[in-house]
Amino acid sequence: MEVEHSEDNLDEKAPTENVENNENQAETVPPAPDTLHTPEKPHRSWFASFLHFLFSTDTAAGRFLRPLLRWSAFIVVLFAAGLLVMYFWRVRPTEQILAQTAAQLVTAQDELTGARDKVTASDAEMSDMQTRLQAAEETAQTASQHLLLTTLRNDVASARVALLADKDVAQAILDVSAAELDLQELKPAVDKINATLGDELVQDLAAIKKGLNSRPISQTTLANQLFSFDVKLLGLEELMFPEGN
């Protein structure tokens, strides 16, 4: 009887202890929340969302564009490297050559300018020399013409002396013939001043020579004609050489 009573007591205590343990556990476990709390995702801008769509591995477009972007970047870098190599291999030496050529061109232009200046100076000197030469030729020609006119007057004077003093008609004829040669050589210069006067002198000297060859000879008349001829020559000398008188 005692054994059964003790077992009944144990059976009664066991549920009581289970209830107490359950109450203790209920006290220790925090109450369940009414709703589950989920963390809020950060809000993205439209630009970030667009980039996420294009380049994220979570999207089909991103999985396609990421390799494409890498290859594009590789191609751009390769192209830039090629440009650098081309610049330092071909363009840079060409620029140096062009710079050297430009410097040589400037030097050549300076030399050409100097040569032109020298040519200009030489032309000026040549022109000055030509002017002086022309002036010298004109002076020499004037002196020659003056000498020729003086010789002509001397021949005429010698013929007058031969007629009046020496009574030598033959010498007078020789002197008049020499005067004719002088007048023929002088006539182009006389014609530039007065063509009528040149023809008149030729005719007068021819008439005097004809008188010397005719018979009888009037020496006084011929001497007077030679004197008149010499007066015309004196007037011609004043026309041709006014600075010498």
Write a compact overview of the structure shown.
Helix content is 85%, strand content 0%.
Specify Rg, calculated over alpha carbons: 70 Å
CATH fold-type name of the domain at 131-244 = Four Helix Bundle (Hemerythrin (Met), subunit A)
Which shape, going by the Cα principal axes?
A: rod-shaped
Text of the CATH class of the domain at 131-244: Mainly Alpha
CATH arch. level architecture of the domain at 131-244: Up-down Bundle
Beta-strand content bin: under 5%
Oligomeric composition of the shown chains: single chain
The overall pLDDT, averaged over residues, is: 80
Number of strands: 0
Distance from N terminus to C terminus (CA atoms, Å) equals: 199 Å
Number of helices: 5
Largest sheet: none
| Structural class assignment | mainly alpha
**SSE string:** HHHHH
In the predicted model, the low-confidence regions spanning at least 5 consecutive residues are: 1-16
Kindly state the percentage of residues in helix. over 70%
Task: Present the secondary structure layout.
Blueprint: H1 2-28, H2 46-55, H3 60-164, H4 169-213, H5 219-240
Helix pairs in contact: 2-3, 3-4, 3-5, 4-5
Question: Describe it for me?
Answer:
With 245 residues, this protein is mostly helical. The chain has a domain of 114 residues: Four Helix Bundle (Hemerythrin (Met), subunit A). It is 85% helix and 0% strand. The longest helix has 105 residues. The N and C termini lie far apart (199 Å). Keywords: Coiled coil, Membrane, Transmembrane, Transmembrane helix.
